[in-house]
Amino acid sequence: MTVKTASTCCYCGVGCGVLIEHDGERILDVQGDPTHPANYGRLCTKGSTLHKTGDLAARALYPQLRLGKGLARSRVDWDSAMSHAAQMFGQAIAEHGPDSVAFYISGQLLTEDYYAFNKLARALIGTNNIDSNSRLCMSSAVVGYKRSLGADSPPCSYEDIERSDCVLIVGSNMAYAHPVLFRRLEQAKAEFPDKRIIVIDPRRTDTCDLADLHLQIKPGTDVALFHGLLHPLLSEGLIDRAYIEAHTRGFSELEALVADYPPAVTSVLCGIAEADLVAAARMIGSAPSFLSLWCMGLNQSTSGSAKNSALINLHLATGQIGKSGSGPFSLTGQPNAMGGRETGSLSNLLPGHRDAGNAEHRDEVADYWGVDRLPSAPGLSAIELFEAVRDGRIKALYIACTNPAQSLPDQTLVREALAACPFVIVQEAFGNTETCQYADLLLPAASWGEKQGSVTNSERRISHVRAAIPAPGEARGDWAIVCDFARRLEKQLRPGQPSLFNFSAPAELFDEFIGLTRGRDLDYSGLDHALIEKLGPQQWPFPAGATAGTRRLYADGRFPTDDGRARFLHEPYVPAIEQRDAEYPLTLNTGRLRDQWHGMSRTGTAAQLFGHVDQAQLSLHLDELERRNFSNGQLVKVTSRRGELVLPVLADDQLRPGQAFIPMHWGDRYLKGLGVNVLTQPAFDPLSKQPELKHTGIDVQPVALDWELFILVEGDVQQRFDALRPLCEAFVFASFALTGRDRPALLIRAAHTVAPDAAWMNSVDRLLGVDEGAVLVYDDPAQSVSKRIRIDQGRITAIRLTGEAAARDWLRGLWERGEVSSPLHRWFMAPLASPPGGAAATDKTICNCMNVSASRIRACVENGMDLQGLKEQLGCGTQCGSCVPEIKRMLAIHAVTA
Ligand SMILES: Nc1nc2c(c(=O)[nH]1)N[C@H]1C(S)=C(S)[C@@H](COP(=O)(O)OP(=O)(O)OC[C@H]3O[C@@H](n4cnc5c(=O)[nH]c(N)nc54)[C@H](O)[C@@H]3O)O[C@H]1N2
Ligand SMILES: Nc1nc2c(c(=O)[nH]1)N[C@H]1C(S)=C(S)[C@@H](COP(=O)(O)OP(=O)(O)OC[C@H]3O[C@@H](n4cnc5c(=O)[nH]c(N)nc54)[C@H](O)[C@@H]3O)O[C@H]1N2
Ligand code: SF4
Ligand SMILES: [Mo]
After folding, report:
1. What residue spans define the domains of the chain?
2. Which residues make Cβ contacts (< 8 Å) with residue 710, sequence separation at least 6?
3. pTM, whole model, 2 decimals?
């Protein structure tokens, strides 16, 4: 019998409600929850494929302990694992003090998990060394809201996006990163075509598909642009003097600064047309309501805090905040980025939107917890924390629900730190991440569908996360692991005293936590798990006695500052570090793909999600390829001041000359060479300490790799991946992906200067099962060509080619279609023969829901079909809708060429 359990999607900050269909043991399907106010039933490609992810072969199932550096880990029971962990932390604290240990946690933890970690670090151990991957994500927005408005509270609701007359999307590719919200915006624009949409992004992304105006600024110039927009707003009388007078402070200083940014100057600084700048200002200034949405293009910057406040200035100057369809609305990345901020999970914060640097706040929290005091020494932020680990200042590090050996900038430094740290705990749902390699103690965590608690989405809405099935193996909920660890450590640090961690369910942690929100701007002390169950997801503030949540903040123009007024910040534009120069002539930008999530530990287990993009690529403008004589798909070496990476290059008309882009998802597991963050810089914003992940000076050179390898093998993909990945370590280039839908296969592309020896080839062939049985074999040592194709029951099930590149896509097509044709046999015996019908162009799956490829869409478009026809004929774009912007782009390109 199957049942449905309502829960929340574990990916992005939109926070969609999902219905998990299961039989009590396995998750069978996922649908959008029609009653959830974030998505009303919609899901994107990632949400709707959740049931296809999480291959057990990739999961961490049992605690594993390494008894000495260099040794392999072995399985231990939970009791030994936890006592060892507590003993190691206890020893470091006894010998080197509380600041010799640190916690690096995650916006993908639930509020209850987050709260337990915080209480452990601050109340029990007495250190502020607890930071989260939100440092890489939201910390500039936190500073922005606090400095400009007085508290870290996004004032808007999703419905404001739909209602707004003018939406400014800046540094956000919401078509990929917040797809369901983008669908809502799309629908609103279709219903109200007069609604104006402006996109500010150095790339022409799919999000631009909806834009009336795209300002393709030079990277990092947003502060100049925001000041520059204010210039015509001022000169054309489009600001709201009465609002400024009544509710703000500091406008005259800003006015003086803005005089330095007239349109003629700003347009040059930002690399855009003066007329476009003025047009954008007029759209903003004349709209009855104006709302802005932003994400990593603003936050991940050495001027991230200044960018946030300069944008909020536009809202204060026009009085566009606190009313329907208006306001500065920061999109949150992770499912519980907000919960982390609420529970105080950055080193400088405390629970309930308090500050660790504020003595009064510390006393309030210490009293609440019943401890003498909280630590006053400032804690380390992510980048500083890993520097301290490398320097030996941190003796024991506890990492949970994040993969820093993939996602932090300057991977060389991060790897040195992790290798040098005397004791590293990694609490993970998946056992094969880059960071797991460094775990002295690996603790298996329950994950989505198996754990329970709450998360807060971008619009301050608290939703339930529910367990549908038991966790696999011996995995446990994060909160339970933390409380177990804390209770053991208490025996050393607070012997004989009552436990601070007597929690037996997430609801108890929630109940204790909300007491710390009482009387604060985010007050949700009126909620509990049972009430959320009864009323459905609720927006904070929700104080005691409330019967409903709060849709919009600051309607009365009063702000949570000491005088109730919002602040204009007046900071000049400062160019990003690592501007283009002769040595590093390109600016590298990094970001998201539509169908992958971060380091791909989960999405990388669903072969279908590689259909859209199946390898890391360096995108450049066609001019840059031509200038360097590169062909599409050629392997190149990318170099920055910190490291290098080899990967294929691709012409991309979304970029301007001088700009480059690599998706953030490929770490060392999927792409040999430590991933994209071996290149990026650790420089960070002085206030938010958020690193600059969007701006790196790089150079690109050709590489000559004469020996090439191509593998496609069906079945046992995770096991084969784990076995084959180390064998490719010696190569200059190696890229891994899954492919297929119903019959997942592992896909490997590799290249090297010379061929490996015969023993290497034999062991690979054994792993692939092409060493015996029904296998087509061809070897021509003179030409360095070698081919193996396994055929089972009339179908190809494994392909291994070296020295032969032309037929890869054609063979992959045969495999996909389950065909073994006579042309295959003829081609097979001919060295270097062209495949029948020529080398097929690489195809990609545009519509993942309905499995519609680019070539099929292109063929129909060339026959004159329009969007409606494509939907009816092929079904593409009729399910989640994520592919519609790309299909429209294909239609537009065809219209131009025709
Ligand atoms: N599919 C998918 N969705 C996700 C995620 C995922 O991994 N995959 N992750 C989630 C998380 S944690 C986050 S934080 C969000 C991130 O969501 P987004 O921030 O929307 O995604 P990114 O692709 O990182 O970057 C957004 C855009 O910023 C632009 N940009 C770069 N530099 C600048 C600049 O100087 N100025 C401006 N104005 N723009 C610039 C980039 O070109 C890019 O298009 O996505 C969330 N959603
Ligand atoms: N170059 C570049 N780098 C970036 C970015 C960028 O734009 N460009 N963006 C940055 C941003 S915004 C972010 S948010 C970070 C994200 O970086 P990470 O936090 O490293 O990203 P994830 O891969 O999502 O890591 C989460 C880990 O938690 C594990 N996990 C999943 N569920 C659970 C659970 O319930 N419990 C536990 N204990 N573990 C679980 C997953 O398997 C996964 O390995 O990357 C940052 N890095
Ligand atoms: S938009 Fe997609 S990834 Fe984000 S919460 Fe909704 S279904 Fe999940
Ligand atoms: Mo993020």
Report:
1. 3-57, 82-134+344-516, 139-330, 586-680, 707-828, 845-897
2. 748, 749, 799, 800, 801, 802, 804, 805, 808
3. 0.97
